Amino acid sequence: MFTFDQLAGFIAVAEELHFGRAAEKLNMTQPPLSRQIQKLEKIIGTELLERDNRKVQLTPAGSAFLDEAKRLMALANRAPVTARRIATGRSGVLRVGFTAASGFSILGPLLEEIASILPEVDIDLQELVTGEQLQGLLTGELDLGLARPPFDREIFDSHLLYKESMVLAVPTGHPLADLSRPVEDEDIRDEPLIMHSPTQAAYFYDLVIRMHSINHGNVLHTVSQILTMVSLVAAKRGVAFVPHSTTLLAIKGVEFLPLAGPSSDDPVELHAIWKRKVANPALRRLLQDLEFRAG
């Protein structure tokens, strides 16, 4: 394999088309420079330069190799700088997991803030439910998660991003929208329900059955995504318990009604979550600048 010294020697001769001037440019004498070029040509297996007593010029192979040689030298010169920037968290990749609901609420503003702190760091986004995010954090496939509790606080550190209430999504014009008060459990006793999946959306499922008296015989559909729930409500398939941030979707054919009881007390939480032992320098820098604390 050729060396970077040989590449530098070849580039100098190719640019000067004169061994003497190239050697002077490299602060060396001409004989060792000539030997470098000869060794390089032997390694590559073809002549790169045509030389006689009067002139030096590039062969067609030399012209093609010159472009690649310059590219390799540029990469070699840039590599230490890149390594230092990654080590200090100024470059690299930050892999962020997020729940679907956070995608239409806090994700956009948070990404703007991350970009202002880490302008040269690439952000790799992955839409995942909380369980998948926690697994990704454990395996190192994710650096930061935007997810729901519970999680093991001995393994993960966190910061509470926000809390919000639950509301009831109903089709536009539904009789419940005419109530002059928050909706109570008795009001929806006979309503067809669109419920969260107890496995894929366990956080919301557990919240709803803990806070409300649910007639499971009325459950018409069980889904995992908030957007799917609201779309089914718009299709008049039933009513659904959703976080207040869902109102930002502004889906036609859906109204959002306040709920009585614990749902009005902002029980829905979203946390930024990361492993306590931070491996990614970009994440370490982000956490410092955002002043996240365990929560």
UniProtKB/TrEMBL annotation:
Every copy of the HTH lysR-type domain together lies at 2-59
Q: Which UniProt keywords apply?
A: DNA-binding, Transcription, Transcription regulation
Q: Which domain of life is it from?
A: Bacteria
Keyword Transcription assigned:
yes
Task: Enumerate the InterPro entries for this protein.
Answer: LysR_HTH_N, LysR_subst-bd, WH-like_DNA-bd_sf, WH_DNA-bd_sf
**Is Cytoplasm tagged as a keyword?**
no
Give the family from UniProt: Belongs to the LysR transcriptional regulatory family.
Instruction: Provide the protein name.
Output: LysR family transcriptional regulator
